[in-house]
């Protein structure tokens, strides 16, 4: 599969075909690590589930801060 490097604003990038995105369960906003392996470049999805869970926990703790403080007493 070939993709073309294109000018995107002040940067450059490429567009991945929908079939490839679907096959690897990727969507807009997903973060990929670029790994150099000799002359090759490897794209690997980064699992950010822990960070998302931590953010959700902090939001709940902020929302119920007073109640959690009372429970801790």
Automatic annotation (TrEMBL):
One protein family per Pfam: MazE_antitoxin
SUPFAM superfamilies documented for this protein: AbrB/MazE/MraZ-like
Positions in coiled-coil regions: none
InterPro entries, per the entry: Doc_partner (IPR013432), SpoVT-AbrB_dom (IPR007159), SpoVT-AbrB_sf (IPR037914)
Lineage: superkingdom: Bacteria
Keyword field: DNA-binding
Occurrences of domain SpoVT-AbrB (ranges): 6-51
One Gene Ontology molecular-function label: DNA binding
Protein name: AbrB/MazE/SpoVT family DNA-binding domain-containing protein
């Amino acid at each position: 599969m070939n993709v073309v490097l294109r000018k995107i604003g002040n940067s450059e990038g490429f567009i991945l075909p929908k079939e490839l995105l679907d096959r690897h369960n990727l969507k807009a906003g997903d973060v990929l690590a670029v790994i150099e392996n000799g002359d090759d470049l490897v794209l690997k999805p980064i699992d950010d589930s822990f960070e998302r869970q931590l953010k959700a926990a902090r939001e709940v703790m902020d929302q119920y801060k007073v109640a959690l403080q009372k429970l801790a007493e």
